[in-house]
Amino acid sequence: MNGDSGATYTHGHHESVLRSHQRRTAEDSAAYLLPHLKSGLSVLDVGCGPGTITADLAARVAPGPVTAVDQSADVLDAARAEVGRRGLSNVSFAAADVHRLDFADGTFDVVHAHQVLQHVADPVGALREMRRVCAPSGLVAARDADYAGFIWFPQVPALDLWRDLYERAARANGGEPDAGRRLLSWAQQAGFGDITPSGSVWCYATPSTREWWGGMWADRILHSRIASDLLAWGLATGAQLEEISAAWRDWAAAPDGWIALPHGEILCRA
């Protein structure tokens, strides 16, 4: 799930990152779009990642064709495997740059991007390109997190450090980690006139969801691309990353642990 050549995907594709992305479904990540889907529509899924959302969308629009694109060949392989596991025959795959999509104008009824615009150097340009390949009266849909809006309990100082370091790394890589609040503005700048903005929240507070989220980030802050970048740039020490990893595990083990992750959403008529 990359943007263009002017930005670097902050998370990378370590197992801990894919573990996170493979948990996503259309229901928890694209609920705002689902009422607009029907059998026969054509869909472009931009930055498809390991394909769990793609497969859910494909099942809803079948026999309509779904095209899944990403810049990572390894991730596209994972998406192919996911689609194959579900026995879906209406999905094709291609490597693509969201700023230079190799499709004709007006090709797709729906163009969808989940957690993509926060990672690109020119989100307005990306939305213009998504609009170009969308059919007249079709839908461009995007959803992105907003890291500055994350809230959690108990208050753990090392987790404040985690968020600060994450935002610094994301911006150093050319992205905007607080994309959620900016989606409406970006869509307006991209020339859309008919925009339906909304928001939704992921919340993890049960023992199993805390264990998943906390354990995933405990590994991610030590072993994924963000860890190597922070160390290489001198933004963090190994000891600090170990402290953050332990803090995530402590948070996950707390019986009153709770976290909410806000997201911005836009539905734009092309």
Explain how this protein is built.
Pfam families: Methyltransf_31 (PF13847). It comes from Mycobacterium scrofulaceum. InterPro entries: Methyltranfer_dom (IPR025714), SAM-dependent_MTases_sf (IPR029063). Keywords: Methyltransferase, Transferase. It is a single chain. With 270 residues, the chain is an alpha/beta fold. The chain has a single domain (15-269), classed as Rossmann fold (3-Layer(aba) Sandwich). Helices cover 40% and strands 22% of the residues. It is built from ten helices and eight strands. It has helices spanning 15-21, 26-29, 52-61, 73-85, 123-132, 157-172, 183-189, 207-223, 225-232, 238-253, and strands at residues 43-46, 66-70, 91-95, 108-114, 134-145, 151-153, 194-204, 258-269. Strands 1, 2, 3, 4, 5, 6, 7 and 8 form an eight-stranded mixed β-sheet that branches. Strand 1 (43-46), helix 3 (52-61) and strand 2 (66-70) form a beta-alpha-beta unit. Helix 1 packs antiparallel against helix 8, helix 8 crosses helix 9 (225-232) and helix 8 runs antiparallel to helix 10 (238-253). It is globular and about 50 Å long. The two termini are 23 Å apart.
